[in-house]
Amino acid sequence: MAGEGFGVSPQRETPPDHRQDQREGQREDQRASQREDRDRVRIGDLVAVVRSDAMHKLLGMVERVARHNAAVLVTGETGTGKEMIARAIHQYSLRCNRPFVDVNCAALPDNLAESELFGHEKGAFSSADSQKPGLFEMANHGTLFLDEIGELDAKVQVKLLRVLDGVPYYRLGGSRKVTVDVRIVAATNLNLDEAVHDGRFRSDLYHRLNQFQLRVPPLRERHDDIAALAEFLLEQNLPGGQFSPAAMEVLIRAPWKGNVRELRNVLLKAVMHLESGRAEVRPADLLPFLGPHKHAPAAAGAGVAPQPFQGSLGDLERQAIFEALAKTGGDRDETARQLGISRRTLTRKLQRYEREDAANPGLGRINTDQQRYFRVAVHIPADLQLDTGVRIAAEINNVSIGGVALCSQETLNYGAKVQLCFGLNKTTSITTSAEVVWVEGKRVGLRFTALSATARRDLGRWLLQKAQSEGWDIGLAATETATV
Ligand SMILES: Nc1ncnc2c1ncn2[C@@H]1O[C@H](COP(=O)(O)OP(=O)(O)O)[C@@H](O)[C@H]1O
Ligand SMILES: [Mg+2]
Predict the structure, then answer these.
(1) What confidence tens digit (pLDDT) does each residue in 83-104 have?
(2) CATH number, domain 368-481, options 1.10.10.10, 2.40.10.220, 2.30.22.10, 3.30.750.24
(3) Would you say the CB of residue 71 lies under 6 angstroms from ligand 1?
(4) Which of 2, 67, 275, 413 sits at 20 to 30 Å (Cα–Cα) from 433?
(5) SS (HEC) of 89-103
(6) Which CATH class is domain 42-215?
(7) How far is the CA of 252 from the centre of ligand 1 (A)?
């Protein structure tokens, strides 16, 4: 018999279609582990699980703002990962080897907030039996994370604003001025626009903190992250465990008002209650912990009042569909049957909801001050012409409304005046005079000195498009008028 006596390994003896299956299996394992690598981002000691396009985009924006010293306001519902984003800003910045100090403003009693932030001298108040540096001093050269900034006492808001403006301050009871170099990242789950409007938060402080705003989307807007986080958390708490498809559907459709924090708690409880030896998590293991108020019909359906409907007819339909899905444990055929619609209609509607969620606008906002520094990294060929008529080829590496950084084939001198010409796309090119404002070998910074109104508008529009494609909300009018 062919092959006999050749000491074939058991693996080679397996029938061909089996081997095919094995290879497929290995490839699937490989794909899964590559996907996991992409899904997990190390932020200092933490692992962030990030699979959705929105969060990858947000991390890209984090890298961009990290390079600045400007204040960043991180907004988003509770448990979305704002603190994680704040840590990422620090980790990706040049301050990463310096301290990251975090303080929860909501936990600071009003009478201690000032001394905690700015320190006190011995005897400054009755219990001050020794001198204490404040959190600002502890964060010197690093990052101070002011969590739940919306809760900060009004008196401290005034002092904070002055310190953020670079004014030296005194420790409580002190007479020596303290100056610090601290980068501020603040976070809030409140709507600070509203708090300012109602007079609960100082508008000047809000604008000072809001140089860049990053919005962390709620978990229900990022289904891919729900799946990735759930897999990650299960792997940590039940190695080898997995979700049945219906259980995953339940997780994906839950409203997650408490976001990642709630997801983690639900999974911990579900795993704790799982009978020993069972590795598959099913809808029935999750539903008791999702809470009757969130999954009313799903919790056995007995006698629980439905949630009051709010919003448009479309919202009402959407809510009915999700509730029916939860009730059937994610069984689409059964859900469609109960709703009296075809399975195709159900799938179409679910796809539309997914698209609507993904298209949710605005992950970040840049305030007008910062807009003029907005630079886009590019590789655009440029043509330079010196006063002497000599022409030099160059490549532009970044562009803002005020100038460009480029790599020139010839050395240029500081202060040199040139005519610069480059194309933004096939139909639009920019020609302007410019001046060399910095030189680092062949890398040169040019400031535009006479950008025409048309060129300014074209460049402004182009920058706006680039900014929007990165996820930033940026006003065209502001871009058009900004100068360096
Ligand atoms: N993308 C993520 N990957 C892993 N864990 C996350 C992620 N986002 C949030 N978490 C975890 O969820 C919990 C809540 O996050 P946190 O940053 O404290 O939220 P927030 O500050 O918005 O309330 C923390 O334990 C955090 O580590
Ligand atoms: Mg927090």
Answers:
(1) 999 999 999 999 999 999 999 9
(2) 2.40.10.220
(3) no
(4) 67
(5) HHHCCCCCCCCEEEE
(6) alpha beta
(7) 17
